[in-house]
Design goal:
By secondary structure, the chain is mainly alpha-helical. The chain folds into 2 domains: 1-95, Rna Polymerase Sigma Factor, Chain: A, CATH 1.10.1740.10; 97-194, Arc Repressor Mutant, subunit A (Orthogonal Bundle), CATH 1.10.10.10. The chain has helices at 5-13, 17-39, 42-59, 69-91, 107-115, 121-138, 141-152, 157-164, 168-191. Helix 6 packs antiparallel against helix 9 (168-191) and helix 7 packs antiparallel against helix 8 (157-164).
């Protein structure tokens, strides 16, 4: 039977490296998925995962069980991703953002593609992908993180707030602003379907 997170965390806090390794195994895929959606780059996502668990290992004694371990590790991953995005924005402002979302699974593509003749699907999908990437690049790191956690990871407002270190109102506001920016940026593409 698999140990509960609480038992594994207690062992890790006592210095058991195998227990911490088990936490890494349990949570690394979710952290990678979040990091990839934030950066759109496999290497950056892998770096964020590594940095997240390095920070968590160094700070495991500070984990207090007030929130789920997954929320705590998401908060660390969020901070790592935001740090990277801020660095990139400052020092590589002209670098183009690589694909951020897996558009083939996106509901917008599925809904739009059903209405577009087959020969135009690829052109439509490419334009939609380009516009979403451009809008996501214009979002603040907090807006992007809130959007990804809510709409792609299915996190609750409370979980997102805990990951971002914000209250419910600020969290909802970040999500709202991100959605508004996305709607505004996609309006020309979506209106062409009508």
């Amino acid at each position: 039977m698999q140990d509960s997170d609480a038992a594994v965390i207690a062992r890790a806090q006592a210095g058991d490296k195998d227990a911490f390794r088990l936490l890494v195994e349990r949570y690394s895929r979710a952290v990678y998925r979040l990091a990839y959606r934030m950066t759109g780059n496999q290497q950056d996502a892998e770096d964020i995962v590594q940095e997240t668990f390095l920070r968590a290992y160094k700070q495991i004694h500070r984990y207090e069980s007030r929130s789920a371990f997954g929320t705590w590790i998401y908060r660390i991953a969020s901070n790592c991703a935001i740090d990277l995005l801020c660095f990139r924005k400052r020092y590589e402002a002209d670098r183009e953002q690589i694909d951020v979302i897996d558009f083939e699974r996106s509901e917008a593509v599925a809904a739009g593609a059903a209405q577009v003749p087959a020969q135009d699907r690829l052109v439509y999908a490419a334009e939609l992908k380009r516009r979403v990437a451009a809008v996501m690049a214009e979002m603040s790191p907090q807006e992007k993180m809130a959007f990804v956690l809510r709409h792609l990871e299915g996190q609750s407002i409370e979980e997102i707030g805990a990951a971002l270190g914000t209250g419910p109102s600020a969290t909802k506001n970040s999500i709202f602003r991100a959605v508004q920016k996305l709607r505004k940026g996609l309006e020309p593409v979506m209106s062409s379907l009508r």
